[in-house]
Amino acid sequence: MRPRGRRRARDVRAGGAVAIVLAAALLGACDDDLGLVCTTEFVYGLNLTVLDGQGGPAAQGATGIAIDGAYSETLMVLEPETMVGAGERAGTYDITVTKPGYVTWSADDVTVTENECHVNPVTLQANLIPVP
């Protein structure tokens, strides 16, 4: 029969070994050559400022679509003038923005690139022209 104190010491060492393995795994997520540490921030690749003919906000009530090959996404309205999409997704997009009473706005071959951690955001301005 082992003394209780010895068993306890071994349990603590086992817990310490788990902590060391966990720490090593977390440190392994960093790039040792660059000292790179990625954030947990979610980055949108497409950021559109949508304005009406007078320069006022026009994203509310508008629909934005981004297409990259077979992939299609409806852009999300964040603010009265802002639409976003392609969250953490690199690609080459054809974008259209439609809104009742306005001519359809479009941009083709908009390229969203990526870096070691996230996508590199592309900022566009969609100036909607009222239908004559």
List the helices and strands and how they pair.
Blueprint: H1 4-28, E1 44-51, E2 63-68, E3 71-74, E4 76-79, E5 82-87, E6 91-98, E7 105-114, E8 119-120, E9 122-127
Descriptive notes:
This protein is of the alpha+beta class and 132 residues long. It folds into two domains: 1-37; 44-127, Immunoglobulin-like (Sandwich), CATH 2.60.40.1120. Helices cover 19% and strands 41% of the residues. The protein contains one helix and nine strands; from the N terminus they run αβββββββββ. The protein has one helix at residues 4-28, and strands spanning 44-51, 63-68, 71-74, 76-79, 82-87, 91-98, 105-114, 119-120, 122-127. The protein has a five-stranded antiparallel β-sheet with strand order 3-2-6-7-8, with no helix packed on it. Strands 4-5-1-9 form a four-stranded mixed β-sheet, with no helix packed on it. The longest helix has 25 residues, at 4-28.
Looking at this protein, list some descriptive labels.
132 residues, alpha+beta, Immunoglobulin-like, 5-stranded antiparallel β-sheet, 4-stranded mixed β-sheet, 9 strands, elongated, disordered N terminus
In short:
The protein is of the alpha+beta class and 132 residues long. 19% of the residues lie in helices and 41% in strands.
- What is the mean pLDDT? 83
Structural class: alpha+beta
- CATH fold name of the largest domain: Immunoglobulin-like
Number of helices: 1
Largest sheet: 5 strands, antiparallel
Number of domains: 2
pLDDT < 50 stretches: 1-32
The name of the CATH superfamily of the largest domain reads Carboxypeptidase-like, regulatory domain
Q: Would you identify the CATH architecture of the largest domain?
A: Sandwich
Strand content: 35-45%
The helicity comes to: 10-25%
E-strand count? 9
> Cα-atom Rg, whole angstroms?
25 Å
The CA-CA distance between the termini, in Å, is 94 Å
